[in-house]
Amino acid sequence: MKHVSILVPETAVVEAIADPRYMFVAVNQFLEAEGKPALFKVQLVGLSKEIKLENSLFSVHTDMLLQDIKKTDLVFIPALSGDMNKALELNKELIPWIIDQYKNGAEVASLCIGAFLLASTGLLDGKKCSTHWNSANQFRNMFPDVELVDGSIITEENGLYSSGGANSYWNLLLYLVEKYTNRETAIKASKFFAIDIARNSQSSFIMFKGQREHEDDAIKKAQDFIEQNFQEKITVDQLADTFAMGRRSFERRFKKATSNTVVEYIQRVKMEAAKRSFESSRKNINEVMFDVGYTDTKAFRSTFKKITGLTPVEYRNKYNKL
Fold it and tell me: How far apart are CA 73 and CA 230, in angstroms?
């Protein structure tokens, strides 16, 4: 039997504790209904027997205290809420236990912005990780040694798992169910919980807001210029000249400040404008393409799909209700 330990940290999101428990308990029920033995022993684990969450609106009663779990097979770190620095300080006593369990053979999965706690262990240094798109800039600033994968629903590396934003953690739960059981059971769970088993990206949900949490004023002005002139064809040389920098120096500073190359940033600003147009207008693909400064249909479609995970038609059909 596989031991599944769901951590109950301070400031945790209640749903991110209840949902993995629900998933793995349900899978046990599916197996038992088929005359097979239950596969998972699911326990809520914490530093105390009762943990109050969301300003004491909810109380979670743990099954086991952390100190009593000597060995487990799978650890879930749920999403945290509120100020991340405060949340990590409140939960620092969990970190040695997570590290010990991983070194003792356990796999560890973070859900949504539970990635901040997983990254605090140092186990993710030099490895890939995903988190909620809205927390990506803060995560990069706090954990520069972790390779944050934009738009990814699931990452897996050396027994460490992470999920993208909000409800996308259901896809990680489903992925782990399939890994520990089989495809047939995962499909049954996907139907029971109404989860798209094929979804592998949160790109279509991302709202690009520009990375401005830096102190390079010249680069901020370059960002302003790009965002105010996205309808035009903007080149790296043009920007470097406008802001009186050599091209190589400009590109280096821009990447350091925004975590995007200049070309990537221009593309993302243009595609964000295209997304908004598809969501709120009746313009056709070519009209939107011209509005954001593209003249090559193939290049526009390719860039749009790379950034959103959907074709322009698929995106419009999904989000435009006009």
Answer: 50
319 neighbors 279 (Cβ within 8 angstroms): yes
Q: What are 48's two structure tokens?
A: 């105390």
Q: List, for residues 21-61, the tens digit of each pLDDT value.
A: 999 999 999 999 999 999 999 999 999 999 999 888 899 99
Give the domain extent around 120. Answer: 2-203
98: Cβ contacts below 8 Å, ≥ 6 apart: 7, 75, 77, 108, 117, 118, 121, 123
Q: In 267-291, which positions are buried (b, 16+ CB within 10 angstroms) versus exposed (e)?
A: bbbbbbbbbebbeeeebebeebbeb
Q: Are residues 144 and 70 in the same domain?
A: yes
Task: For the chain, report the end-to-end CA distance as a whole number of angstroms.
Answer: 51
Axis crossing angle, helix 169-180 with helix 15-33, rounded to the nearest 10:
30
The pTM (predicted TM-score) of the whole model is 0.67
pLDDT higher than 70, residue 197: no
185 contacts 31 by C-beta, under 8 angstroms: yes
Report how far residue 222's alpha carbon sits from residue 213's, in angstroms, rounded to the nearest whole number: 14
Above 60 in pLDDT, residue 203?
no
Q: What is the pLDDT of residues 173-196, one digit of tens each?
A: 988 998 888 878 888 888 898 877
Number of domains in the chain: 2
**End of a domain among 178, 203, 228?**
203
